[in-house]
Every structure is written in C-alpha cells, then in structure tokens.
Design a protein that fits this description.
single chain; binds NADP nicotinamide-adenine-dinucleotide phosphate
Length: 280
C-alpha cells in the first residue's frame, strides 16, 4: 500500500465556493480522528463540472460535496445516483467507489432531521402537521425527509404557487399545497414550522409570516445559518417556541459524507461548534 491509500482527499465543489464552512468542519474531524488527509475548496465553473468530477478518482479523492450550482447537474454526470438523491432530485455528496466509479448521494435530508432531533430529542414527524415555507431545492430534501420519517400532513406554501402545487402532485399525500396568501392561517395546529425560503438570510428581507396562530409547543426550524438567528427565529423564541437554525443541518449533513470517505462516523462536539461559530 502506497501513501495514496492512507492519505485521503475530499472537498467541496461549487461556484462560488469560498464562503463554504465545510472545510472547517471536515478538517476539524480529520485532525480530531488523527487521520491523514485534507478537505479542500474546489472552485469549479458549471461548464467544467463533468471534467472535474471525472478527475476525482485520478487525483486520489475519496469524494466531494457539491454545492450551488452543481447539485442538480451532477445527477446526470455520475455513474449511479442512490434512490434518496433521485427522489430529492439533487446530489450533495459524491463517493468515489473502489472501482473508481462515482456514486451520487444526498445527505441533506438526514442532516435536517438530525438537526431537529438535536434541538428536541423527543421530536416526532407524526406529532402533528408540519408547515413548510418555500418550494425550492432545499425544500425538496426537507419534504422527502419528513415523509420518510412518517409525517402525516405537510402544508407546503410557496410564493410562486406552481412550484408548491407541482411538488404536492409529485410527492402526493401527505403534501397539501397552500396558497401563499393563506400562509398565516396554515400555522393553526402545526407541530413544526420550517422556513426553507431565503427570506431572513443576511441581505434579504425577513420572512413575512405572522406567528399568532402557531401553537407555543411547535418546533420552529429555519434552515438559514447566516445569520445564526433570523428574525423568524427571534420572533418564535420570544413567544416561547423551541427553535433550531440551519447550522445543525449543515453540520449533520456532513457526518454521513465524512463517514463514507474516511470510514469514521464523526460527532458534533462543543469544540467543533465553537470553531464553526467563530467563522461567522
Ligand atoms: P432556491 O432553490 O433558490 O429556493 C428559494 C426559495 O425561496 C423559493 O421557495 C423561493 O420562492 C423563495 N423566495 C425567494 N424570494 C422570496 C420572497 N421575496 N418571498 C418569499 N419567498 C421567496 O434556494 P434553496 O437552495 O432552496 O435555499 C433556500 C435557503 O435554504 C437558503 O437560505 C439556503 O442558504 C438555505 N439552505 C440551508 C442549508 C443548510 O444546510 N442549512 C442547505 C441548503 C439550503 P419562489 O419559488 O417563489 O421563487
């Protein structure tokens, strides 16, 4: 066995990619577990994605993460896509197999559910209706994860009606598309509220949502992590709701990817949280 078999590379491919926190997370775990390897930024323009993916095995990479704008394009460029990633319609993790072929996976759904469990260990998807705001790429992972966890009613609302409607058609029950203008009323009796829109992100307006009808024991998840606490989360916390931000999803989606590449299932320790929070 040569050094290439013990020294492992992984990285995140995106355009742009310099803002990614993934190197901090994965390099922390590499050091923590005493592994030989590195996780690097891979700035790859969309027109070069196929070439870059095919170079992974040649360059000795165990795999990589994909971020904007590559998550959907990769579906047709890898050798196989696992069932979950097919259903979500996006690949966020590439694994280089022993025969050098490329498998596309999606760990965002796992990351989302684990972030809820970290915030509220007794959380159950069948505890009551979930309201999902937004029907973009991230919403698909959230919705598939909730369905797989046994959610019986998902009220999906999106500024553009067609996307919510189409997603309800695609996934069927338990999804119910709700017109955007009815979003405030949709909170009545909900056990979970998830914001998957970009509203509340740094530089964006706050999500326009009145929480008056949301039960005080509902869990509120905002998958945004810049800022760490969005106006929605502040409003929810002030009225007594438990809240969880997008950092938990980001950290938890990284765990199965790291395990696939490096063979160790890493944890989310206070030291890691401290290090990642220090980058904001
Ligand atoms: P996307 O596919 O572009 O979807 C954006 C969503 O935001 C759409 O539903 C869009 O509605 C909605 N939206 C945009 N402007 C709006 C407005 N003014 N009012 C109401 N809704 C508006 O983006 P994405 O990839 O799903 O990402 C969405 C968010 O999730 C981002 O903030 C991203 O950072 C976050 N995210 C977090 C993680 C994590 O690990 N924590 C992972 C992935 C994404 P329309 O359909 O009407 O345009």
């Amino acid at each position: 066995m040569g050094a290439s078999h013990t020294y492992k590379l992984a990285g995140v491919m995106g355009w742009p990619v310099s803002h990614s926190r993934s190197p901090v997370i994965h390099n922390h775990w590499i050091a923590h577990h005493g592994l030989k390897g590195a996780y690097v930024l891979l700035p790859v323009q969309p027109e070069n994605l196929e070439q870059a993916l095919r170079a992974l095995p040649v360059l000795g990479f165990a795999g990589c993460n994909l971020t904007i704008p590559h998550k959907v394009d990769a579906l047709r460029l890898v050798d196989r896509v696992d069932l979950l990633a097919q259903r979500i319609g996006a690949v966020n993790t590439i694994v280089v197999e022993p025969d050098q072929s490329l498998t596309g996976r999606n760990t965002d759904a796992y990351g989302f559910i684990e972030s809820l469990r970290d915030a509220m260990p007794q959380w159950r998807a069948d505890a009551g209706p979930a309201v999902v705001m937004g029907a973009g790429g991230a919403a698909r992972a959230v919705i598939v994860s909730l369905i797989d966890q046994g959610a019986r009613e998902i009220r999906l609302t999106n500024r553009s009606w067609a996307k919510a409607h189409d997603m309800a058609q695609e996934f069927g029950p338990p999804i119910r598309a709700i017109p955007w203008e009815d979003r405030h009323d949709a909170l009545q009796g909900a056990a979970l509220l998830v914001n998957t829109t970009n509203q509340g992100m740094q530089g964006e307006a706050a999500l326009d949502l009145h929480l008056d009808l949301l039960p005080s024991d509902a869990l509120v998840s905002d998958i945004i992590y810049v800022p760490m606490e969005t106006p929605l989360m502040i409003a929810a916390r002030q009225r007594g709701n438990a809240t969880v931000n997008g950092l938990g999803m980001l950290l938890n989606q990284a765990r199965p990817a790291f395990e696939a590449w490096f063979g160790v299932c890493p944890g989310i320790t206070p030291e890691l949280l401290h290090q990642v929070r220090g980058t904001f």
